[in-house]
Design a protein that fits this description.
Distance between the termini of chain B: 42 Å
Shape of chain B: globular
Helix content of chain A: 55-70%
Structural class of chain B: alpha/beta
Radius of gyration of chain B: 22 Å
Number of helices of chain B: 11
Largest sheet of chain A: 2 strands, antiparallel
Strand order of the largest sheet of chain B: 2-1-3-4-5-11
Strand content of chain A: under 5%
Oligomer: heterodimer
Strand order of the largest sheet of chain A: 1-2
Order of helices and strands of chain B: HEHEHEHEEHEHEHEHEEHEEHEEH
Helix content of chain B: 40-55%
Distance between the termini of chain A: 16 Å
Largest interface: A-B, 44 and 43 residues
Chain lengths: 360, 360
Amino acid sequence: MVRFEKRPQPSRLFAYATPLLAVLATFFFGGLLFAALGKDPVVSIVTIFWEPLFGEFSFFYRPQLLIKGAPLVLIAIGLSLGFKAGIWNIGAEGQYIMGALVGAGVGLAFYPTESVLIFPLMVLAGALGGMLWAMIPALLKVRFGTNEILVSLMLVYVAEQFLASMSLGLLKNPEGFGFPGSRNLQQYPSAHNAEIIAGSGMHCGVVAALIAVIFAYVLFARHKLGFAIRVTGEAPRAARFSGVNPSRLVVFCLGASGMLAGLAGLFEVSGPAGQVTIDFNVGYGFTAIIVAFLGRLNPIGIVLAGLLMALTYIGGDIAQSQLQLPAAAIQVFQGMLLFFLLAFDLFTNYRLRFGRSEVA
Amino acid sequence: MKLTTLFASAALALGLASGAWADGHEKTKVGFVYVGPVGDGGWTFTHDQGRLAVEEEFGDAVETVFVENVAEGPDAERVMTQMALDGADLIFTTSFGYMDATNNVAAKFPDIKFEHATGYKRLHPNVSTYSARFYEGRAVQGHIAGSITESNIIGYIASFPIPEVIRGINSAYIHAKKANPDVEFKIIWVYTWFDPAKEADAATALIEQGADVILQHTDSTAPHAAAQEAGNVAAFGQASDMSAYAPYPRVSAILDLWGPYYVERTRAVIDGTWESVDTWNGIGDGMVGIGEITDAVPAEVKAEALALKASLADGSYHAFTGPLNKQDGSAWLGEGESADDGTLAGMNFYVEGITGDIPQ
C-alpha cells in the first residue's frame, strides 16, 4: 500500500530538485505527445531547446530570448512579492496594458517634439499607470475586504476594453488611414526604447528586469519588509503578533507588482512592439504567474524560469515551422511544465510511504 | 552593424543554396504566418485552405510551412525572420497587425518576397499587399437579408470600428434598403474577431430586439447556434461556409477564397516574374465567394441575389453607386457615380439611414 505522509520539515532537496524533475518529466511526456503526433520526439525537443541556443541561427535567437524573457521576469518578480505573502495579484496582464497605455500616451502627447526627457517621463508614467491600476484591488481589499484575485482578474478585461478604445480613438495614428493602432514609437526617436547595443536584444526593459531582480534579492535577504512578507505568507498570525500591518503589506505588494507590470508594458510598447494596438497584450501577465512559481518565487529562480519559458516560446515557433507541430501541442507542452512542477511540489511537504501503515 | 552583416551573410548563404537548387533540389519554399489557429473555422482556416491549394497546384515543386497563433508585434517579427532564415522564398503574413513587422523583416531580406494581407504599407520593393473586396459579398448578403426579413429589423454583429467593417455595414445596408425600404439595422460592436461567448450574447440581444436576420463580421458559428435556438432567425456564414447550419438558419455565406491568389503569386516567384503590387480583388477575380444560397430563401430572391452577384463580378455594377448620402445627410455620391478606392479604403462614416454612431 502506498500513501503520502507529511514531512516534519519541508524537504530542502525537493524544493530545489522539483523544477529539474518537472523539466525532465515534461521532456519525457512531451516527447510521448510529439511521438503520438507522428513527429520524432528527440528531434522535436532538440528543435525547441537546442536550436535557439546553439543552432545555426542562434545569433538571431539569443537576443530574442532577452526580448521575450524580460517582460516575463519583470512581471514575475513583482508577483513573487505578493505571492510570498499570500496576496494574489492575478491581474498583471491588466496592469501591463495600463502601464503601456499611460506611458505611450505621455510619449505620443509630445509628438513630434524631440527631447531626452520624454523617455524618462514615459517610464515614470508607465510605472504609475500599472501601479494605480493595481491600487484598485488593493484599496478595495483593504477597505472592504474584497477578494483581490477576482478584482484584479476582472480588471484585466476592463483594461482590454480601454486598450481597444485607445487604439481606435484617442491614441489612433492620425496618419493611419483610419486603421486602428497608434503611431509607431520605433519611428519616434525620443520615445523609442531602442536596443542599447544594436542586435543584442538588450533594451531598457532587460536592464530594468535585472535591477528588479537585484532589488528583490536584497529585499528578501536583508530587509525587514522582506521578512514581513515571508512571515505573513508562512504564518499570518505570527506576523500580526510581530507587528506587521497587513493592510500596508497588501498595498505595497499589489502596488509594487502593478508598477513592475506597468513598466514591462511601457518598455514593450515603446520597444519591441512599438505600437498601441488592439491586440497589444499577448499574455505576459498570465505567463508570468507560471514563471514566478517555476522560479520558486526566488529572484534568481525567476530569471532562469523566465528564460526557460522564453525558450519554449521561441523554440516552439521554430518547431511549428520546421516540423509542423501544431501550436496547441506546444501549449500543452508548456502546460505540462507547470503541471509537473505542482505535482512534484507535493514531495516537498509529503513523502511516499510503502508497505502497511504503521501503528500509530 | 554586426547584425546586418550576419543577416547579409545568411542571405548570401541562402542565395548560394538557391543556386544549388538547380541540381535537382529545386523546391520553392512558401511560408505562412497565421494570427489564429488553423482550426478556427474562419479567417485563418480560409488562409490555410489557400496554402493547401498551393500545395495541390505545385505538388513536389513547392514546400509550404506555417506557424499558427502568432501574436502581432515582436513575435510576428521573430517568426517571419525565422522563416526567412530557414530559406523561405515567399512569405504570406495574414493579419493587418503584421504590417510593420512585415516591412521590418523585408528590409533585412531583400531577396525574399513578402505578401501582407489587408495592409497598406509597401516600404520595400519586395513587399506586396493584398486584400479582398468583401463589401461585394456584403451587398449580396444585404439584398437577401432585406428581402427575407419579416420584422424589418436586421441585426449586425460588428467586430471593430475600422474601415473594413464599416464598409461591410454600409454595403449590406444599402442593398437591404433597396430590397426593402422599411428595413432597419441594429448594430452591436463586440470588439473581437472571434469570441463565441460574446458573439452569442450579441446575437441573443439582437434577436430580443426583434431582429430576424443576423449578419456577422466575426468568425465563430455561435450566432448561428443562437439563431437556431430562437427559431425563425436567419444567419450567414462568415469567411468559411459554415454549412453545418444549412439550410437554416444559415441561408448563405461570404467566402474568403485566397487559393487562386496564393497560387498565382507562388507561380510568379517560381517564374521570376514577381513584382510588388497592391491587390484588391472581389467576386470577379474569385477572391470573394458567395456560399450556396439555400432553399430557405425564396427562389425569386435567390435569382435576384445571383444576378446582383453576376453584375458585381463582371464590373457592370459597383456596390457603392450613387445617389448616396452620408449619415448626416451631406451628399457623397451623385447619380450614377461610384465610390473611388481611396474613400472606400479609409471609410469612416455611415451612409444615410443607418442609426447610431460609429464608436470612437
